[in-house]
Amino acid sequence: MAQLTKKRKAVINKVEEDKTYPLLDATRLVKEITTTNFDASVDVAVRLGVDPRKANQMVRGTVSLPHGTGKTVRVLVLCTPDKEDEAKAAGADFVGLDEYIDKIKGGWTDVDVIITMPSIMAKVGALGRVLGPRGLMPNPKTGTVTIEVGKAVTEVKAGKIDFKVDKTGIVHAAIGKASFSQEKLYDNAKELLQTILKLKPSSAKGAYVRSIYLSSTMSSSVAVDPKSIGA
């Protein structure tokens, strides 16, 4: 087994096992224990006391992170010709309709978010087999099926993300980069966590927030005290 370097030991020792930290301290720690030579993504994982197999316990929503994600988001807008200029002016990376539908049918999915309009959802719906497994299917609940395509592009580019509980009851989301200040990571994490709290299903029994962990790419995780965000 490879020997741990002094630097790595020092990093590991910063986080006490079996201890939960207030959110502000957790954001400081996750920055301190990130030792990658690239700008790592910082992620939140929230285990919820829900049964996602039950429709009335599905937790899904959107949140606009105050400081964005630090990631360049590539946006495709599938729209009618009269909306193309609006989408381009808002900063969409790809704009069109039939040519992009054909590209997607051929397996092209080199984008992060797809925004479309209600009037052409029938066409877009046929792409479900390609887009569904990649989490790219537009959905009215996340604001990606809308008449206001320009506004939707602006919001996504500014840091609006969507999240949903997975089949194991966990919400995963990226809330920034390790290069962000502690305050920016704290603001983003708090905004996401407060949004999740507001979405508590009335049918959920027992503790709603079971655990919260902050981590960065290839770092160990830091347990967050749910009480520090009002859970």
Number of DSSP-assigned strands: 9
**Largest β-sheet summary:** 4 strands, antiparallel
Which stretches are low in confidence, meaning pLDDT under 50 for 5 or more residues running? Answer: none
Beta fraction: 15-25%
Q: Globular, elongated, flat, extended or rod-shaped: what is the shape?
A: globular
> What's the helical proportion of residues?
25-40%
Radius of gyration: 20 Å
Mind explaining what this structure looks like?
The chain is of the alpha/beta class and 231 residues long. It contains 8 helices and 9 strands. It has helices at 6-14, 23-32, 84-89, 98-105, 121-125, 128-131, 149-158, 182-198, and strands at 41-48, 60-64, 75-78, 94-96, 113-116, 160-164, 170-177, 209-216, 222-224. Strands 7-1-8-9 form a 4-stranded antiparallel sheet, with helices on one face. A hairpin with a 5-residue loop joins strand 8 and strand 9 (222-224). Helix 2 (23-32) crosses helix 8. The longest helix is centred in the last third of the chain and has 17 residues, at 182-198. The protein is globular. It starts with 5 loop residues before the first helix and ends in a 7-residue tail after the last strand.
